[in-house]
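worker-3 :: picked Sodium:solute symporter family protein
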Amino acid sequence: MSHLYAVVVGAIVLTLLVVSLTRLGKVKTKADYLVAGRSLPAFVLVFTLLSSWIGSGSLLGGAENAYNHGLVALWQGGGGWAGLLLIYFIAPRARRSAKFTIPDLLESRYNQTARVLGVIAVLFAYTAITSYQLIGGGDILSLIFPTVISPDFGKYIMAAFVIVFTAIAGMSSVAYMDVVIGLLATVTMLIALPVLMHSVGGWSGFHAELPASHFTPLGDDTLMQALELFVPTCLLMLGNQAMYQKFFSAKSEKDARVAVVGWICGTVVLETVIVLLAMVGHVLAIKSGASPFPREILAFTALHSLPGLLGALLMGAIFAKIISTANNFLFSPATNLVNDIFVRYIAPEASNKRILIVSRLMVVLLGIWALYQALHTGSVLKKALYAYTIYSAALTPVILAAFYSKRVNAAGAVTAIFAGTFITVFWDSSFVHNHLPAVLAQRDAIFPALIVAVLCLVVVSALTKPPRKDQVAIFFGEKA
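worker-3 :: tokens ->
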């Protein structure tokens, strides 16, 4: 059986490599590498948005939560759905701004300090997200080849795949690989769920094997715990640089808006299917007496509970989805270092050839940093929420204000970015736990960091001069 799984995973890796290489010849300029020449149609955008969003955070972290607690895991996915509904109105504005990165946008709307702090926040958050994709890929390789590949060795192999695929052709290769991955994952998961549900005796058999709390809105969590899943995911979605880069890559504002509709439909369906697959996998594990790692439940179920080819395809789809998300979240901070640091401050007159060389070097270096983090991470869910919180508190408020507030200014934005990042990074320190009441110190960082960041944004902006008209004009479709 392992030979079949090896063949399927190998075929997927080869296909992705071919797709990347076919896009290589189309990459001639900085715009080609960073935003695919602003040429992506709605169909490609739908699948690249879907593939970049649903990765290890859902397939491992969300599945782990569903395995342990049931439908309450949908609060994490639900945060993304709520964010998507709001993004429908943001997407055309993002495309109109015609930027390359979020820090690029921050300097245009605020100032250079906002750009630099934005780069720092993205680097913290996105390399953390990339790191747990490497964990997920390593777990899958170890499941397929348990006597040959350990989970840690699998992380090294996964890092090599991701670095090579991402470096080849930038956004163009990432986006078109995502079409292949998105189609494969969607089809296989939709087939696998009814097959597995039938094997446990349908909904009644499925429901009878798990605790009743697994089927209630909050499970055995409190409302506050559910909101600590919902809010970081929602705010990450609203401020997600990888998403905005896709909008910057769209052919037109219309393509950006149409893509969001498809993305909403696909995300709601796949996030729900993932949670149900994890719960069915739990039932099958109970029946067989197995004790899989909760975060590996989808891959474990594909390996042990599905017919050979379908199981191999589902395993391959999960593996490909993880590669896709890692590609997106590795590529995104690399573009920050190139566009927002190298081109902006070090070599503003650099040729396209030099920029492409430096871009690929940044992908390699950040990939190595993400691998280091992966080798020192325990819980994928905890790492995901940490990454989401940094981004949600530090960047999402100032990004939304750029599009919807003419009064917020550079001083407010800089203060908010700094405060949100600082509180998130140091919230779990001994200082916080020793000097704050336990009722606060035991909470996740999202609400303290978000509240302080928003207060800084509003209060500091109100106490200082409003921005110049030319700073806000393009974001509101006005003449400067």
